[in-house]
Amino acid sequence: MNDFDERDLLTRELRDRSQDVGGHPLGLDHVRTRARRIQRRRNAVAGTVAAVVLAVAVPTALSVTDATRNGAPPPADQPTPSVTETPTPGPDGTFPLSIKDLPRGAEPGVSYVLNAEKTLVTPDGPVDLPEAYSQITPYLDGWLALAGGENGYENVFLDADMDVERTTLGGAGIVPNADGTRVLYSERDFNVAGRTVVVDAPSEPGYEREPISWDAPRGSTVAPVGFAGEDTVAFSTEDGELFLGVDDADPHTVPLQGFLGISAASEANGLVAGMVSYDDMEGAGCYGVLDPAVSTTDTVWDTCDYALFEFSPDGRFVIAGPPQFDGYGPSGLAVLDAASGDPVVEFSPSAKRTVTAVSNAVWEDSDTVLALVVEGDETRMVRAELDGRLEAVTDTYSIGMNLPLWFADRPRS
User: Fold this and answer.
1) Which of 163, 172, 214, 312 could staple 223 via S-S, CB 3.0–4.6 A?
2) Is Transmembrane helix among the key words of this record (predicted)?
3) Number of H helices, E strands in the chain
4) Are 200 and 233 in contact (CB under 8 A)?
5) Calpha distance 139→158 (Å, rounded)
6) pLDDT digit string, tens, across residues 101-131
């Protein structure tokens, strides 16, 4: 969700390129298989006690299991796992949103980056990074990352050992498709002044479809939004131009005129979400969902109660939040029915006198959300279920000039 100030800080920090720290990469094929699975893997429950939960993977490779085997209590930030009862919503119909006093759940089913540690934490364990890339995803026999350099955004192509093979001038994001077989990114042509292309490329070796590209407006900085079907992608430019890239006998772009900005695309059903209007006085926008197969100007439904952020893998739901926000992001978290806009579940801050925000949220699978929640000067990742249950899936981190962690393969906006 919106975090432009933090992104700017991160971009400036990434200009100070660090030396290779000698990573310890996992077997790439194994990481790739796990990374592209949307479904999380829950540990089996034995008796009435939930499965033992590993500590968040860190470079020291220590885990809470060693302590618990020896009878020692887990660290203070690692609550003893317990069965979680279905919560009851408050009088306003929402569930409490907080990072404190939560039961500890299974490890996240998606990868994330630890900033200070320069570590990519995958479902299979940690991988040392040359630097804390703003994004990184498996790509062919190595990795594709996004960084900030003297010339702006850079695509960084790395091998399986995290050694940099080459860099190209890039855009404001990289977006993998649902099963991790393709990735959408932007590239500025260094040899042709002003030329910018949007690339839909295979991200695993031997994939049957070749790379596809579309020309974006000359001199533009592109923000890839996502896949809006098997043969369609969505992207925008920093000047507010919005497009679908269509792959057919003659690949071409189609302007999207029903939005001020686009925030999400659904690979499952082709829907696109975005802002349809903005009120300067209120400092908030109205959002809507559009079906480009029916119209590129008229929305299926719209709302001024929520901002829209990411469709679920099966296209049934969309992550949302309050439409008026700044700083770290919206003050709450919601899931809406993608077909109607009706709320399915909503979480609101439980600490009324403490600033609470959701800096980003993604789908862990088709009915479970992972969210990075800021509360006061601390943040951690939580798992939100559609029945209102909330559990912690990482430690709590203090916030300094930059966010201490972020999702690895999602744009931070």
Assistant:
1) 172
2) yes
3) 3, 30
4) yes
5) 8
6) 999 999 999 999 999 999 999 999 999 999 9
